[in-house]
Amino acid sequence: MADATHVIDWDAADRWLFGEAWTGDRIAEHARQLCDVIGPRWSGTEAEWRTIEYVRDQLRAAGLDEVEVEEFDMACWSFSRAAASIVGGPALDVLPFIRCPSFAVEADVVDVGHGTTREIAAVGERLAGAVALMTMAAEPFTTPVPHAYRLRDVATAGATAAAVIDPKSGERREYHSAHDARDPDFVSPPLPCVTITREAGARLRRLPQPRLCFDVVTAVETKRTANVHGVLHGRDWPEEDLVLGGHHDTVYGTPGGNDNGSGTIATLETARVLAGLRRENGAAPGRTLRFVTYAAEEQGFQGSFEFVRRHYGAGRRPRLAINLDELSAGHMKGIVLGFDHLRSLVQGQLDSMGDGLQCHVMSQLDNSSDHFPYLADGIDAAHLWRWRFRGRHADSDYHHESPDSADKVNVRELKEYSGQLSRLLLRLSCVLPEDWPRLGVATEEAQRRVNAERGSVVRVY
Predict the structure, then answer these.
(1) In order of start, what are the domains of the chain with their CATH numbers?
(2) pLDDT (tens digit, 9 = 90+) per residue, 386-413?
């Protein structure tokens, strides 16, 4: 393992980092404050500003060298009414898609199945002016198409709105989006969309000629929000950066224990542990470490796009940015890169930690979270390999739902995350500059990949 110019006793540093991560943690208190005291943290709201202030105060208390609240204007979507009912029947419990426009309509329901080209063609002209009833999940055994693109086909066929069936059972439904971050012209649902429960969808499919009535009122306003940015200066190459962060916002009405209290807490804890190591042990990072909580991830990654624009324009880039999202879905298994040229370097540092963690590379540029704005600009970025998308903990199988509460934060596993992330960041900060293969890829190359991958389902495991 290549070291910085100052000497670090790695055995002593590892013992201190992991010991402090496990015995000095504040995870449960952070979860209580974020999820119970503050609660839902939709960007652009007063509750989010309370979150921003809390994160700022925690980073300052940890002893970082600089802590800034970096304000910016965002396009904030909100809704004040979402009413729906079966004509001549009961009301339905619905949620509008994020960025859904206002709409009021009464129309026949036309079942389009999974929204495939074949199924849309089969209903023909009946879809014009109707409410499309569509299953969100892709049709089994077919080439998967993102639901946003299937909804766009439904809109092109003339549907006036869509009732989209959530795949979860037990009268559960969550907030969804229908856009593609890879396409700047596809930022909102292609037609008015609401989520309905699986049970409501089944009931509509049993009715001979159902009609639905909707009254949905939404708005988009310019609101002030902020990223929170803490800095631990590097001792050897302070002009070089590593970034660790995750979004601090949630969707409407969701305490956000797993999504993304877990990522916010891991950012706070990793910053606290590494600042404490420097103070108590004298082991400082070789290059500068930046700890960020991003605003408005749930509204189009506006916070991370702003952070990249503000700090990494005009050719300046970090060595690597690591994004933390939904960490309580499962234990840490390793790191997943966007570009392959850092694979050997990162795997070497993981191997030196001796815990069997693995480094992998995604076949596509993942557009699902706050690492995407970095990747789209050609900046090396990664997220953590964990059981988020497949085999996740049963008690954390809540996403954009009100049961994603403080108890969904897995305290024991977050201790491991903060300990392992601290060890990895310290090691990466001490790799000699000449041992880094390259600094990202050309922005034009990244954009070519982004454009080519539009409309594809990203392979996430």
Answers:
(1) 10-76+222-452 (3.40.630.10), 88-209 (3.50.30.30)
(2) 655 567 787 777 889 999 999 999 999 9
